[in-house]
Amino acid sequence: MPKEPHLEGILDKYPYVAKDDVEGRVVCLLDAQSENRGMELATHLSRAVPRGQIHELVLTDQAEATPGSTVDRVAYVGFFEVEHGGLILVGDRVTVDGQELGKVAGFDETHFPNHMNVLLKARVRQTGVELGVKLGAKVVFRMAEQAAHNCGIMLGF
User: Fold this and answer.
1) 31, 92, 37: which is closest to 60 by C-alpha?
2) What is residue 56's DSSP assignment?
3) Residues 6+ apart with CB under 8 A from 4
4) Are 45 and 90 in contact (CB under 8 A)?
5) How many domains does the chain fold into?
6) Is residue 2, in this structure, part of any structural domain at all?
7) Which residues is 86 bridged to in the sheet?
8) Has residue 5 been placed in a domain?
9) Measured over all CA atoms, what is the biggest interatomic distance in the chain, rounded to whole angstroms?
10) The pTM is what?
11) CA distances from residue 63 to 121, 127, 132, 146 in whole angstroms, order as listed
């Protein structure tokens, strides 16, 4: 099995220096939660998302939600279509119509290739309806200024 360069000490430092925002629009609103989801986050720190793909936004309040972990407490926000593709990174700040939802904690590929679950770590776990998200709302994934530093520490760079 191939080695994961981010987690196995192959790289000498965190490689992501700067990136374009990934942008999209909400195409489906969700209103459900789970206390025992068992979402398994991939070990990868990034996922490429081409224009036109549809992925799901999910929130958790579990502090230990990191790449490679299992997450149970989740709230479903909705699905978004990627309008400006690029890379989504663990640590990206995610906003919907300017409202910050949380930071990317990781990626669950249970339903892939149909869609990927993008899990966000938030202070409060709320559904899309509870957050007041609307169809057509603009979704933005923006690299946090401290993301590289924090991920580097987490991975031992």
Assistant:
1) 37
2) E
3) 43, 44
4) yes
5) 1
6) no
7) 49
8) no
9) 43
10) 0.89
11) 7, 18, 24, 18
